[in-house]
Amino acid sequence: MLSYRERCEMASMILAKAREFGADLVGLADVSVLKNGPSESLFPRMKDHSRDRFAERITTGLPHGAVFWEDGAETAIVYAVAHPEEEPEMDWWCGGIDPPGNKKLAAVGKALKEWLNSAWPDMQVWPKLYHVEKGGIYLKEAAYWAGLGCIGRNNLLITPEFGPKLRLRAMLISEKLPQTGPSAFDPCRDCEEYCLKCCPQGAFGEVIYTREETGLDHLPAREGDYFRKLCVDEMTKNENEAEVQVLKQFSDEPLKVTKYCRNCEFACPFGKKPL
Ligand code: B12
């Protein structure tokens, strides 16, 4: 059994290593705090259900939207890779090729897992997949508890460093380490809510969930006015309108390039490069 001091040292080493391997942000969240969070609680009661077709094949054996927690998992290591507006290709899908941002996240995860396995061979490490239905966790909530930022009016994690322009991943470990959050950062409080006005589908136009009806303090987009189905409609439109291009950094072959809408990310004044 490690002492508190040893666990703090271990936490510092992990945070430093994740950055060394390419994470732009990283933090630690207590698994017991993440269990039964608002996303998981709301999921079975969602009215604007529009299921992610990639998540349809549930591999956890649990109901749709329920999180699978490995026995003995104590801490989530949550890490982010910045996806700046100036490098939109980080988020592009070229044919079936993983976007460069996803590849970078995978590389960080692989290097970190290998290092953790060799540094603490007795500790268990579980890299978590993207889709909750395939064993993933609700990443925005994990990132909030790990102190990376807050969940903003656009329903995205907003960080002081990059605003919402980042992508997240997590892995669980069997050691109980001190949580690194949450932080008091809240840029939406005095904001003019540019994100709500820029959605091509008007996905933030109507309150769908209320605190009274759901019994939850935390609702999608804070006020319960994020309409998931309209967001999916826009992303489906993006797929249908994808053009065939030759992008040498992806492939020499002409391939369909899908550029998903990121208006609610880019409209956020936080994390913009100073002019
Ligand atoms: C399924 C999914 C989608 C679906 C449905 C989205 C949804 N929110 O329901 C679709 C395909 C529509 C989608 C769209 C997008 N997505 Co998406 N998506 C996911 C996925 C896999 C799960 C999200 C989910 O199902 N949530 C469950 C529902 C019920 O909850 P919710 O709507 O998020 O609302 C909850 C929270 O807001 C929470 N909450 C609100 N306030 C607070 C406060 C506190 C303190 C706490 C604890 C919680 C909390 O409570 C709400 C429930 O009541 C995650 C990855 C993951 N494994 O987490 C990525 C993820 C959320 N998506 C991401 C992105 C970037 C997008 C898009 C911009 C598209 C794109 N270009 O990639 C849009 C933006 C949509 C938006 N504004 O929310 C990123 C977000 C990064 C960030 N900065 O936050 C994630 C984390 C993936 C990643 N690679 O990093 N997505």
At a glance:
It is built from nine helices and nine strands. By secondary structure, the chain is of the alpha+beta class. The chain is globular, with a radius of gyration of 19 Å.
What would your notes on this structure say?
- Helices cover 28% and strands 14% of the residues.
- The chain is of the alpha+beta class and 275 residues long.
- The chain has one domain.
- A four-stranded antiparallel beta sheet has the order 1-2-7-4, with helices on both faces. A three-stranded antiparallel beta sheet has the order 3-9-8. The protein has a two-stranded antiparallel sheet with strand order 5-6.
- The termini are far apart.
- Bound molecules: cobalamin.
- The site of cobalamin (B12) has 40 residues, from helix 3, helix 5, strand 7, helix 8 and helix 9.
- Cobalamin is lined by residues 37-39, 42-43, 46, 52, 91, 130-132, 136, 138-141, 144, 151, 154-157, 164, 166-168, 216, 218-220, 222, 226, 228, 231-232, 235, 260, 262, 264-265.
The average pLDDT is 94
Structural class by helix and strand composition: alpha+beta
How big a fraction of the residues is strand?
A: 5-15%
User: pLDDT under 50 segments (min length 5)?
Assistant: none
The molecules bound to the chains, other than polymers, are:
cobalamin
Any idea what the radius of gyration is? 19 Å
Q: What kind of oligomer do you see?
A: single chain
H/E topology pattern: HEHHEEHEHEEEHHHEEH
Helix content bin: 25-40%
Termini separation comes to 51 Å
Number of domains: 1
What's the shape?
Answer: globular
Strand order of the largest sheet: 1-2-7-4
What's the β-strand tally? 9
**Count of DSSP H/I helices:** 9
Most strands sheet: 4 strands, antiparallel
